[in-house]
Amino acid sequence: MKTEKERMLAGELYIADDRQLAKEMRHGRRLTRIFNQTTEVDGDFRAEVLNQLFKQVGPNHYIEPPFHTDYGTNTTIGKNFYANYDAIFVDCAEITIGDNVFMGPRVGLYTAGHPIDALVRRDQLEYAKPITIGNDVWLGGNVVVNPGVTIGNNVVIGSGSIVTKDIPDNVVAVGNPCHVLRPITEEDQIIWQRQKAAYFADQDEA
């Protein structure tokens, strides 16, 4: 017979009120509480706590407190990661985040789901589906990513979007429900590279 944790991570119905899951959740909550009580001068200690909290986290990561998660141990984060205030990772299923991912304030990654049928919900049964975010992704403020969603590489998600379905590579996507607004083009690259060059030219003159 599978444990409730095994059922949870397999995307099957499970009961969250389970001794093993409760123990692991307490561990995650304790570490996030410690993290959220740090100050701006505790950079090294913050990084140490996050390394204990997450399944894996790459170098050069920064999360602005407060931050909240269920377990932490079901979340993998790549290098050069930044999350602004009030990020929430409900990682009942695996959350996988690539390299060079930026998140605005109040971004929520929600792997957990509850049955549509009320009679099943009353029995405290729930499920979880993994969330995957590719490389070079920017999620604007107040973006919500729903269970089972994959966001591709080089994607910008507009603020306030509710992402209910997969988003392909190389696009700007917005809305509720989130949809592709347009592709990211070579013209975008030219415009922003030109502005970058102008910035560094100003720095050289200063």
Secondary-structure map:
Layout: H1 4-9, E1 14-15, H2 19-36, H3 43-53, E2 56-57, E3 61-63, E4 67-69, E5 75-77, E6 81-83, E7 87-90, E8 95-97, E9 102-103, E10 108-110, E11 112-113, H4 118-122, E12 125-128, E13 131-133, E14 137-139, E15 144-145, E16 150-151, E17 155-157, E18 162-163, E19 171-174, E20 179-183, H5 186-205
Parallel strand pairs: 2-5, 3-6, 4-7, 5-8, 6-9, 7-10, 8-13, 9-14, 10-15, 13-16, 14-17, 15-18, 17-19
Antiparallel strand pairs: 1-12, 11-12, 19-20
Helix pairs in contact: 2-3
Keywords: Acyltransferase, Repeat, Transferase
InterPro entries: Hexapep, Hexapep_transf_CS, LacA-like, Mac_dom, Trimer_LpxA-like_sf
Protein name: Acetyltransferase
The secondary-structure element order is: HEHHEEEEEEEEEEHEEEEEEEEEH
Q: What Rg is obtained from the alpha carbons, in whole angstroms? A: 19 Å
Largest sheet: 7 strands, mixed
Residue share in helix: 25-40%
What is the straight-line distance between the termini? 68 Å
Please count the beta strands (DSSP E, at least 2 residues each): 20
Structural class: alpha/beta
What's the rounded overall pLDDT mean? 97
InterPro entries: Hexapep (IPR001451), Hexapep_transf_CS (IPR018357), LacA-like (IPR039369), Mac_dom (IPR024688), Trimer_LpxA-like_sf (IPR011004)
Family: Belongs to the transferase hexapeptide repeat family.
Pfam families: Hexapep (PF00132), Mac (PF12464)
GO molecular function, one term: acyltransferase activity
